[in-house]
Amino acid sequence: GAVVSQHPSRVICKSGTSVKIECRSLDFQATTMFWYRQFPKQSLMLMATSNEGSKATYEQGVEKDKFLINHASLTLSTLTVTSAHPEDSSFYICSARVPNQGFLYEQYFGPGTRLTVT
Amino acid sequence: AQTVTQSQPEMSVQEAETVTLSCTYDTSESDYYLFWYKQPPSRQMILVIRQEAYKQQNATENRFSVNFQKAAKSFSLKISDSQLGDAAMYFCAYRTMNRDDKIIFGKGTRLHILP
User: Fold this and answer.
1) Inter-chain residue contact A43 with B102, CB threshold 8 Å
2) Which of A4, A12, A82, B33 could potentially form a cystine with A110 if both were Cys, beta carbons 3.0 to 4.6 Å apart?
3) Based on the structure, what is the number of domains in chain B?
4) Pick from A87, A80, A85: which is nearest to A113 by CA?
């Protein structure tokens, strides 16, 4: 199956700094990637949909200026948490949509990144 | 708006026994997809099984099968011969036929396997 990687797997940063998380599709080209946030013992919350070469589409309530998404190539999307605060500490998961499957497409998920803001 | 409801926050089952996880959903669409995802302690999301709403036959993947009741908007997951490796969070999920649409996840059920 398709493989999606994330880097880093864990990151600790100080409050006020920015941190970048990478999501890569390793063996396929993904025109669409998704970014989720998962709080402890909770479900996945979609933050934004990232399309290669265009601006990301953010879900209601997600701050665009705080969570910057860039999908500059068909295999890489990045999420930058700007001016991070302790409440941004969470588990961030990306997924990539495998193309050319007609109406049905699979989303393959990355292993996630645990962000801790101190 | 579509919603997915999992009413069992936690369940336990004896190893080798059978367990059923419940899921209901709400939608006005007639065609859509339903999924069960597994999230083990590693946090890696894994697709367990998928059901197309236009198919009457219940999907089956080895020890995993679903009971899809379209009229009742119910989509339960049955795990047979439970194994220790089945211990995980299980998320029921929904998506419309629109290829650009997002997946809507339920809150999840944590499954414990008792040795």
Assistant:
1) no
2) A4
3) 1
4) A80
